[in-house]
Structures are given as structure tokens and as C-alpha cells.
Amino acid sequence: MKQLLEAGSTILAQLMNVVSAINEEDFCKPSTALSNSTVGQHLRHTLEFFICLEQGYELGVVNYDKRIHNKAMENDKHIALHTLHQNTGIYY
Q1: Is residue 92 within 8 Å of residue 16, measured between CB atoms?
Q2: How far apart are CA 34 and CA 32, in angstroms?
Q3: How many domains does the chain divide into?
Q4: Which among 6, 3, 13, 17 has a CA at the least distance from the CA of 89?
């Protein structure tokens, strides 16, 4: 379990570094490298799975189909950074 927590923390810290480094336009701009999705869409999707895992683990049931889709997070890098901070305690 310790390895899982460390790996998850490392991934979330890397996400925060990437999002902090790019500008708002690039955060929301479709990219051919991402199958015409945006960095924001991929970040939202990834972060929602982490949140769902954390909440479900505490309850003993993880159901990814019932995760909340926070569209604001994929369209506003500051909301994404705030959500990352809430779930990691890391400041940007």
C-alpha cells in the first residue's frame, strides 16, 4: 500500500508541475498528440480516478462509473490546480 500511495503522490505532483508550467490557452487547446483532446480533459479524467479511488477505498467499494465529472476543472487551469492542491496538499 505504501508503494501505491508514493506512486500516486508522485504522479499528482508531476501533474501539478505540468499544469503550473503551461499557459491557459495550451491547457484548453486540443492536441493531435492527445487524440484532439486537451490537457485539461486528460487531467480531469486522471484526477477524477484518483479521487474516486481514494473515496471508494475508505468505503471499501470503488466504482469509477459513479465519479463526478467536473467540467470546470478541464476548462480552467486554476480550478484544476486548486483541485490538485485539495487532494495532495501540494501548493503551486
Answers
A1: yes
A2: 5
A3: 1
A4: 13
State the chain's maximal CA–CA distance in angstroms: 39
Domain that holds residue 58: 2-88
pLDDT 10s digits, 7-43 = 888 888 888 899 999 999 999 999 999 999 999 999 9
State the distance between the two ends of the chain, measured CA to CA, in whole angstroms: 26
Model-level pTM?
A: 0.79
3-state secondary structure of 31: strand
- A 10 A CB-CB count for 59 gives 8
Q: Hey, what amino acid is at 69?
A: H
Look-up: residue for cell 500500500? 1
Helix (H, G, I), strand (E, B) or coil at 37: strand
| 13 contacts: CB under 8 Å, gap ≥ 6 | 88, 90
Q: How many angstroms from the chain centroid is the CA of residue 39?
A: 10
Quick one: cell of 76?
A: 480552467
